[in-house]
Amino acid sequence: MTKPVSDEAGEPVPQPVSGKAVIYTARGGYDVIRIIERTVRAPAAGEVRIRVQAAAVNPTDIVVRDPGRGEPPLTPGMDAAGHVEAVGRGVPQRLRVGDAVMAAVTPIRAEGGAQAAHIIAPAASVVPIPKGVSLAEASTLPMNGLTALSALEIAGLSPGKMLAVSGGAGLLACYTIAIAKRQGLRVIADAKPDEFGLVRSYGADVVVSRGPGFAAAIRAAAPEGVDALLDTALLRESAFPAIRDGGVCVSVRRWDDAPSERGIQVKLVWAGEVLERTEWLEQLRDMAESGVIKLRVTGEYAPEQVADAQRALTAGGLRGRPVIIF
């Protein structure tokens, strides 16, 4: 038996560990996905190492693979939940070995993303999971929650202003609507007729029919136009008529030829820029604990079933996230 390594004070020193990880060997289709055994280093100062039990699957995972973002080989995933197994120097006392935590990380870094049995994460990107939820449920919260908070910060609306959300029944919309109502905004969202009740349950004040008449339906409900639109459905410039002169369109995807009309500002939201907003992660945890944000897992998959999880997401209609269980 190997004797544990200790420091001068007799405290155990974290050692590298090995476990499964999802990787993309190249850019392309499902055929570039592999499951490998990889070794993960000990955490450095200000970092924690997490034994991942659950990692959510998001549209970003598909964008990273095809058309591609970052340089393969890389590990996808931005959301993880599990237990702290080692901490580096200077990690705050709020994080201890054995704690059940959730984390948001970017796959576009040397350590890769969240879909692995062990990950390194900055301590600022890690908080305890909400009380009363499973690790699988907790793994669906960080990245989309941070995206929602960032989108609302970018929109810069004061209480009483009106926000529209396209793709209103989706997970990002769900979180955004709930947070927007907490911030005192009025919200209009779209949905299929049989999901009107679902979107109202998120907190939307007005729900209009999803489809090519989105902008006209918004204008019918808000004749002067909304102050800002979060475009989760990628409607792009076709949704501009819904926005008032000088309003804001917040997009979850960049488009290089983004047009402008009537002074409308087009802004990109990217969660990768806010992964270390600890106070936001704590706010999201508190909202999930109180039931303001509803966490939904649409299916649990083994690491070897990542392609199936991505296919389910691409097929559309999910009102939550698939989760990889390690």
From TrEMBL:
<keyword id="KW-0521">NADP</keyword>
<dbReference type="InterPro" id="IPR013154">
    <property type="entry name" value="ADH-like_N"/>
</dbReference>
<dbReference type="InterPro" id="IPR020843">
    <property type="entry name" value="ER"/>
</dbReference>
<dbReference type="InterPro" id="IPR036291">
    <property type="entry name" value="NAD(P)-bd_dom_sf"/>
</dbReference>
<feature type="domain" description="Enoyl reductase (ER)">
    <location>
        <begin position="28"/>
        <end position="324"/>
    </location>
</feature>
<protein>
    <submittedName>
        <fullName>NADP-dependent oxidoreductase</fullName>
    </submittedName>
</protein>
<dbReference type="Pfam" id="PF08240">
    <property type="entry name" value="ADH_N"/>
</dbReference>
<dbReference type="Pfam" id="PF13602">
    <property type="entry name" value="ADH_zinc_N_2"/>
</dbReference>
<keyword id="KW-0560">Oxidoreductase</keyword>
<dbReference type="InterPro" id="IPR011032">
    <property type="entry name" value="GroES-like_sf"/>
</dbReference>
